[in-house]
Specification:
The complex is a heterodimer of chains A (630) and B (252).
Chain A (H helix, E strand, L loop, with lengths): L1 H4 L2 H26 L12 H19 L3 H7 L25 H30 L12 E2 L2 E2 H36 L7 H20 L23 H29 L12 H33 L12 H35 L6 H14 L18 H10 L1 H15 L8 H18 L1 H5 L1 H7 L3 H31 L1 E2 L2 H27 L16 H31 L1 E2 L28 E2 L14 E2 L10
Antiparallel strand pairs in A: 1-2, 3-4, 5-6
Helix pairs in contact in A: 2-3, 3-7, 5-6, 5-7, 5-19, 6-7, 6-8, 6-10, 6-17, 7-8, 8-9, 9-10, 9-11, 10-11, 10-13, 10-14, 10-17, 11-13, 14-17, 14-18, 17-18, 18-19
Chain B lengths: L5 H28 L3 H19 L17 H34 L2 E2 L4 H26 L3 H29 L7 H33 L9 H26 L2 E2 L1
Parallel strand pairs in B: 1-2
Helix pairs in contact in B: 1-2, 1-4, 2-7, 3-6, 3-7, 4-5, 4-7, 5-6, 6-7
The chains are: A mainly alpha (630), B mainly alpha (252).
């Protein structure tokens, strides 16, 4: 029992529970003294619940122990630069480790857990949609103080936000694990901040998911007021959870930027950095700055509910459209946060599997920054029907269409790279190629949504849903799986099973294409998004049935992936050397990667992607273990 | 370190403070006499520029460091500075968002507040900035006594500022948080800012205590520098919030 309690995660969760109880008790006590109402939905008043959840998150951080070194610094004590915790074995994954590789895996596991939750939510409401009429989420259905229809709304909304948090943690996993290895750093620039960034995401996820049990919320993932200003208590948990997850994103991004600027190996000038590092920088610039505004907009609604401030309440002179501006200022660039690392991964891994140099390296590097910067100027395209000033529509339309230029550069580079290459098709390559195709679909369906005249028809239809899932799968999910299959041997020293990997791929890809193309079809024909039921006379029943079946097939393929992931840890084929014949420095070191990364800093002596050029080399490993493959 | 020796560095800090004080006075005059928001914005930008250059030493970010040893204190110091400034960039987006909300909801109106009281709390924060700079300069030259005294004064002035805003201003304002857009804007903006001041006071207390124990030296005092830059950042935010809340336009 004592050993169990020594796991940081367990300690944190117990502390969170205690903290929440204390917070609720504190506010309830104060309200009782002030003669205010102490009872409310789910037993206590709303301020008590919110303060309880917040204090719970703080106590979680104390309990895990990520703040310990900072407290010591504040008291003027010195601490070791790194705590060596490799003797802890698997237990270090459940505690406040400072090793960027351990934190990367922690991020990954959390991202996958949230992905399972988000996927299960989707399966539930997808089942409900398989047929017109209400199947099981009926008006008489009652759970967690919600009727079936309310639960539909909650699940649909949570699917969105849980997946978003999962994606944020997923890209953080890849960046945390890969970036220091790719640039030859010992660790991240701020290891403690890195641990903090990861661990704050855990209570954030807990609070976000708790909204399901505290009445849910009905606004969709966007949380627009005025509806969110009077939604059930779950709304507050949603706002608080997302705000806390935002800190994870912000501090993670800060760490990545400083690490890349300050910790590169000798000889690695900016245009010899791996493309994935460029993508990580571009993503981090957005996360660092814009994330504050989604946090702020959500906090403003929280304050409106708690203290009655009238930012978004027209009756008090507020302006609901202001919320949408603040919200989309982050939430549009956020999709570039999700896809830029994935697109960077495609450019990073493609040359390995076609044995050719990356076509137009500098243009690809700059295109990531270009997408990130143009991304700050396009948020208004989500608001063409919101009633914002009409003269704003056209500039936002053009700025949005401008995003196609740097994205086109990327596609051109991919085609140029694949052209006449010696293409191999192991599982990671399959996911990369599918990622390109799916992202192309997502990209081509974007401009119709960005063009005012067509958007007025397409807004709030399933066409948007189809487009969005194409961009997310093409820009994140497919490259993400490619990266997992690609770097898995680096983490474990064993490779994942190829047969299961190919089953995963061939199950998921066709099902996914069917799913989104069917979504777009019914969307064009007028199917509204975010609703639990539709008119049978519209004739959408067969399409929805197909979508539901496709959804379950995707879930099945993910199950195959999980079996492969767990099975291969112990039983996978040994792969300690340079499995993919990559030029990248991390593959010149042994697998699994040693705790200290490289024995000595390597030196960059050439271009990163000169595959197939005789006599060329990217790095000089200088006494690091070398497996001799080139 | 703004000067080669302590006296000239301290004199520089005083000179910048006098400039800032004069500009604050001019700002008040413009608001009373001219009511011309473009000029107020210009003055605020000049003040922020002075603070960022002379008090926050933003130029230190661009000093090339030749130190090759990545484990050395000097190398890590530059890394830490970059991290802190990126945090400030990130944080300023919150305040920028609040400012956008204020412009959107109130436009060229301002909340119904006592302008004299606003000038008083602003002066308190400005004087605290002077002492903060004095504390850092003293520590950079190894003068622990001046450092401790100045840090203590800064801390007290910071507490005074919070007391002035939360304890006096919030109590005497003729509107509550739920009274229209002016309530929403005023209480949220000052609330977010006061929260930052309070964290700054805690930070000041930490460096005061560690300074008392003798943990800082002219070569190694990153904690002091970080606290200084953070405190001045909170001051820069107020340089923009003060005219936005107290000076611009006409009372709603």
């Amino acid at each position: 029992m004592k050993k169990f309690f020594s796991l940081g995660l367990v300690r944190g969760l117990v502390f969170e529970l205690i903290g929440t109880a204390l917070g609720i008790g504190f506010i309830t006590g104060i309200r009782a003294l002030m003669g205010l109402e102490t009872k409310g939905a789910f037993g206590f008043s709303e301020p008590a619940w919110v303060f309880g959840a917040l204090l719970g998150a703080v106590c979680f951080m104390v309990g895990v122990g990520v703040l310990r070194d900072w407290f010591k610094w504040a008291r003027g004590e010195e601490t070791e630069e790194h705590h060596d915790d490799s003797h802890l074995g698997w237990r270090r994954y459940f505690g406040p480790s400072l090793d960027h590789k351990v934190i990367g895996i922690q991020y990954l596991i959390t991202a996958l857990v949230l992905m399972v939750f988000g996927g299960l939510f989707a399966l539930i409401f997808r089942t409900e949609l398989a047929k017109s009429g209400l199947q099981f989420l009926t008006t008489t259905f009652k759970v967690f103080d919600q009727s079936g229809l309310q639960l539909y709304n909650t699940l649909m909304s949570l699917h969105g936000m849980v997946m978003i948090v999962s994606i944020l943690l997923g890209i953080a996993a890849l960046m945390n694990y890969a970036v220091p290895l790719l640039i030859g750093a010992r660790d991240m620039a701020f290891p403690r901040l890195n641990a903090f960034s990861f661990w704050i995401a855990v209570p954030a996820g807990v609070i976000l998911l708790s909204s399901l049990f505290l009445g849910g919320f009905e606004t969709g993932w966007t949380g627009y007021p005025p509806l969110s200003a009077r939604a059930p208590l779950g709304m507050q948990m949603f706002f608080l959870g997302v705000s806390l997850a935002g800190f994870s994103s912000i501090f993670g991004a800060l760490n990545i930027i400083v690490t890349v600027i300050r910790m590169r190996a000798p000889g690695m000038n900016p245009f010899r950095m791996p493309i994935f590092v460029w993508a990580a920088i571009a993503t981090s610039i957005i996360s660092l700055t814009a994330t504050q505004l989604i946090g702020l907009s959500f906090q403003m609604v929280m304050f409106q509910r708690l203290f009655g401030v009238g930012f978004f309440d027209p009756a008090q002179g507020g302006n609901p459209v202001l919320f949408q501006h603040l919200f989309w200022f982050y939430s549009h660039p956020a999709v570039y946060v999700f896809v830029l690392p994935g697109l960077g991964l495609i450019s990073e891994l493609l040359p390995v599997f076609v044995r050719k140099p990356l076509f137009g390296y500098k243009w690809v590097a700059m295109s990531s920054l270009g997408i990130a910067l143009v991304g700050f100027l396009v948020w208004g395209h989500h608001m063409f029907t919101s009633g914002m000033a009409e003269y704003l529509r056209v500039p936002f339309m053009y700025s949005t269409l401008l995003v196609a230029v740097p994205t086109g550069v990327k596609f051109f580079s991919w085609v140029g790279t694949v052209w006449r290459g010696k293409i191999e098709f192991p599982t990671p390559m399959l996911f990369i190629l599918a990622g390109i195709v799916v992202f192309l679909l997502g990209g081509l369906t974007g401009p119709p949504n960005a063009t005012v005249s067509t958007d007025l028809h397409l807004h709030d239809t399933y066409f948007i849903v189809g487009h969005f899932h194409d961009t997310m799968f093409g820009g994140y999910i497919f490259p993400f799986f490619a990266a997992l299959y690609f770097w898995y041997p680096k983490v474990t020293g064993r490779r994942m099973n190829e047969v299961l990997g190919k089953i995963h791929f061939w199950l998921m890809t066709p099902s996914f294409l069917v799913l989104t193309l069917a979504m777009m079809r019914v969307g064009l024909l007028g199917m509204r998004r975010r609703i639990a039921d539709y008119d049978p006379a519209l004739g959408f029943d067969p399409s929805h049935l197909v979508m539901t079946i496709a959804g379950f097939l995707i879930a099945l393929s993910i199950l195959v992936f999980f079996i492969n992931l767990i099975y291969s840890v112990k039983r996978g084929e040994l792969a300690t050397g340079n499995l993919w014949n990559s030029r990248s420095p991390e593959w010149q070191a042994p697998s699994p990667m040693p705790a200290h990364n490289y024995e000595q800093p390597f030196e960059v002596v050439g271009e990163p992607y000169d595959y197939g050029l005789p006599g060329s080399a990217y790095v000089n490993m200088k006494g690091n273990d070398h497996d001799g493959n080139q | 370190m703004t000067g080669t020796n302590k006296t000239s560095a301290l004199r520089m800090g005083l000179l910048v403070f006098i400039f800032l004080a004069i500009l604050t006075g001019i700002e008040f005059g413009i608001a009373i006499l001219l009511n011309f928001w473009q000029l107020l914005l210009l003055v605020a930008l000049i003040k922020a520029g002075l603070v960022m250059y002379y008090y926050m030493h933003i130029y230190k970010l661009f000093v090339a460091d030749e130190n090759a040893d990545k484990e050395s204190y000097a190398y890590k110091l530059v890394t830490n500075r970059l991290g802190l400034w990126l945090f400030i960039v990130s944080d300023s987006f919150i305040f920028g968002g609040l400012m956008i909300a204020r412009v959107n909801l109130l436009g060229l109106n301002r909340p119904e507040l006592d302008q004299a009281l606003g000038l008083v709390v602003t002066s308190v924060l400005l004087i605290s900035s002077f002492f903060m700079n004095r504390a850092e300069t003293a520590m950079a030259h190894g003068d622990r006594k001046t450092f401790l005294a100045s840090t203590l004064i800064t801390m007290l002035l910071g507490i005074g500022f919070v007391a002035g805003v939360l304890g006096v201003e919030w109590q005497i304002a003729p509107f509550g948080p739920s009274d229209g857009p002016q309530g929403a804007v005023f209480y949220t903006m000052t609330g977010f800012h006061a929260f930052h001041v309070l964290t700054g006071v805690i930070f000041l207390f930490i460096i005061f205590r560690n300074g008392l124990k003798g943990h800082y030296s002219p070569e190694k005092h990153w904690g002091v520098e970080a606290c200084t830059v953070y405190w001045h950042f909170v001051d820069v935010v107020w340089i923009f919030f003060y005219p936005a809340l107290y000076l611009i336009g006409t009372v709603i």
